[in-house]
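step=predict obj=Ferredoxin n=64
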Amino acid sequence: MKITIDQDKCVASGQCVMAAEDVFDQRDEDGVAVLLTDSPSPELADDVQHAAAVCPAQAITVED
């Protein structure tokens, strides 16, 4: 699995962090999402897919 975030689209809602806190975080200065890892372990796949689904800006892309 490979994850990318379009930081220009991110609206800093934090939904991704709540869905997958081991994979996503937010920058302190503006709240924009950042990846803690772009290739998380397989057991986090459901959380990552959920994070992408609940992103209000659709800024997260997940490739299998």
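step=describe
The domain at 2-63 is CATH 3.30.70.20 (Alpha-Beta Plaits).
step=end
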